[in-house]
Amino acid sequence: MTVVIDKRAAGGAGGQPAGGPVSAAERARAKGDAKGSLYKPRQPIYPKLVHGQWRRLKWALMILTLTVYYVTPWIRWERPGALPDQAVLVDFFGRRFYFFGIQLWPQEVYFITGLLVIAALSLFLVTALFGRLWCGYACPQTVWTDLYIYVERLFEGDRNARMRLAAAPWSFDKLWRKGGKHLVWLGVAFGTGGAWIFYFRDAPTLLVEFWTGRAPIQSYISCGLLTATTYIFAGHMREQVCTYMCPWPRIQGAMLDEHSLQVTYRYDRGEPRGAHKKGADWTGRGDCIDCNACVVACPMGIDIRNGPQLECINCGLCIDACDEIMDKVGRPRALIAYDSDSAVAARSCKTAPTYRFVRPRTIYYTVALTLVSGIVLWGLVNRAPMTLHALRDRNPTFVRLHDGSVRNGYTLKIANRTFEPRPVAVSFAGVPGARLSSPGEPEGVVRTVVPPNEVRAVRVFVSAPAESLTAKSLPAAFTIGGPKGDVKAATTFLTGAEAP
Fold first, then answer.
1. Which residue ranges make up each domain of the chain?
2. Residues 271, 354: contact at Cβ < 8 Å?
3. In terms of Cα–Cα distance, which of 402, 390, 473 is closest to 436?
4. Tens digits of per-residue pLDDT, 370-402?
5. What tens digit of pLDDT does each residue of 153-206 get?
6. Helices H, strands E: what count in the chain?
7. CATH classification of 386-494, choosing from 3.40.630.40, 3.40.190.10, 2.60.40.10, 3.40.50.2300?
8. Other C-beta atoms within 10 Å of 443: how many?
């Protein structure tokens, strides 16, 4: 049985939301509506520092993700010859993408497409199961905003101190605190843009070129753009990026249902709420003491007690804030917790909650994710180390020799996708009596060595005796030996014979 409870009505008279004061985001929304404006001015949000397991998890993931981002371009991976030794590199000049022992060529962009599909399906599955964990813990906007807020606290103090400083008149103390904060913000933003460009060119080389003015102009432009966007988005826009610019808050509504675990206020336990005095009886009232600790800890400025909201990123900081208060008043923790709407509704009806992790939508996402992952993995495992393409001459299409035989010219493109040089021998089949030759080589022998990670063009000629010219065109194929077996390229041999 599903129970729908009007949580605003549960709060008291006058149509006020339960818990009295509303969030900064709601006050700003009401202010904007009152003026009839389509855009409301941003109300600064000063989230309070809280301590707890979810805050520690966010610190750990912030350190991990930033370390991966800044350190990865400097990891070396030995490759033979003149190939780059940067482990992860998008080499536009060499037209290659390197990821440790894997290299992808431009024509293999389908692997990148597959990885993007895998990432999307993984995000769908995680969202259906556990809500917006990506937004709360791993999204770049969240990670860098967390870092910026940390810097802000170092210079200006916690929530109350920052609010007092913002309202105070300008003084030397305010100037150096604000100025120092923005300088560090710009430094972090510049480091962000600087780290990004190292993914597209050898990092040690580009570092020297960048500071000596010899780097490509694209490097300076890219670094400048990412520096500006990081400073603006993480320093000044923050929650507005998530609310107005990012499409995911609107898309994720299609991924969620009543069984998805989200940061949830357990109104079945918290209502009716009200102020509490030490030693007072808890009979006839809920555990929520209406302290608004969850509101002041929220980086989005919302009140989680008003139910699921588009702005909520499921970061869990309100859980830590509420747990601290519950410890102080001697009540059980988890008044706010990761829970599902169906479980909360079941408890409000005095029935045992159930958690359904296996349900149609999670099955669909899991099957699709497994299928796409399997296809991409199979493609990587069975990826051809060498490829062969035969381009037949178009002008002239064939040449008739003095003895009546016919000769066709071809350009063979042999691609070596390995990190080792590959000697190859070319053979031709499909036309009886055909003779294969190459400029500078004895007739019947076409051999070459293809350097690692390169394409070698080989010019060849095929001559066929007159008695073999039984049709206007004959199907044929070139063959080379590869590490995983013979590699063939289908083609045609034009004879010039009249059609029967």
1. 9-43+257-352, 53-252, 386-494
2. no
3. 390
4. 999 999 999 998 888 899 999 999 888 899 998
5. 999 999 999 999 999 999 999 999 999 999 999 999 999 999 999 999 999 999
6. 16, 15
7. 2.60.40.10
8. 11
